């Protein structure tokens, strides 16, 4: 197997993560192999079948360009890479120490310890720095293995010679020439270690080339429980990069990760609510690569279904609209390339739509998952159609029913499909209301339990308050908007502050409810301090330089009765505010609350 790795007959599918074993694990692995203990099963896939993936050599190998592998290694990368570098390479192994600091190491075995039945084999395997000098605490070498003579004198055999019979023979002659009594030691070492390693057999499952792509993904996930979970995006990245037709036509491989990173950076720069992405696409917030692929799959399968219905009128079993894992894995590169620009444009419309609903920041986005059907609908209807007043009003109502009804918190694949089909039919053909609208409900009791951003409805009410024109209590000249939200450090803040509850021994359960919170700037929050409302309203008048009536009007934009604040009457405030917020929810959802 190591020979096949060396010449590129065995390579990795490009969706495999990089090799990452540390020094201690490599030493333990070498001890296992030298003792002929079970290593664990490796798994490969024969190439040339339906599942075509871009391949790359194992880390540390030098494979000639253009070599087409015979097998792709699905499970066993860490073990085979470690064994190749330690036993077959003429370069030190690039690994890391216990503190995760990068280091380079040669691996040796102490012959005297290896042949001693009482010795621990783990202690016989020695990790030596790249310069082959092992130093003590003051940096002074206490073990020098920098020459063949020094290795033989110390009795430390370099394990990277073990498969090179000529090099092993020369090392043996130098070792035994130092003393006649070393012949017996070498004979024992040859039998216990060298012959054991050279005869070691790796259990191998070899999948035939007919294995389907989604089966490869499923198998990989099940055998890779100790590594980083493989996702559909990485598998498609390797699949698209292995598309021979694209490579021939364009003179290069298609990079899905680069294509997605370009789209995400453009979207997140223009619309921060859609999140961010780092340089290597490993960490992304907000809109994810999976969201993007699911949206494309919804658009593709909806269009496929419509074409089928046109070509086969009256057919009872058209192909389904779907965005499940299998649909993504079977998404052709040609379809992706055709639809990705449309879907990117649709997500730009989504970013603009969210801003119109006063959802500006990623942390305030109620549901990231709901953006998938919204973008698919926008792509299928077209951005101009979505801007028509009746269409936009319908989309806003559907959106708020999903948020305030908290319908996107669980398994969403089936709801994605229903929403795309039902919302389009409702908006364009006069179909029945979508299930998301019909099923959505908001109970009055829910208001009292909305206490943090963990709830979509909590963030939704916060956005609706700003959408209704809430004016900050320190900045009277304009309503809170996207332009001043960050500069004023607007956040969800308490109306009756915690200090008031502590002083009055009031019901603290209602203190953290959204009923006792609103959108306020940091400056307003500082002015409020721990004072009762009757006191801080006077302070706010002076700080903003406005009259009491003007401030009362500003308080009213938050759906708060100014009188209840002037009276420091929390019970009256809470009852009145809860009723006002319920009316706000009803208007957004277009239906009564329970």
TrEMBL record:
Residues annotated as domain GmrSD restriction endonucleases N-terminal: 8-240
InterPro entries: GmrSD_N
A Pfam family reported for this protein in Swiss-Prot or TrEMBL: GmrSD_N
Highest taxon of the lineage: Bacteria
Protein name stated in the entry: DUF262 domain-containing protein
Organism: Streptomyces sp. SID12501
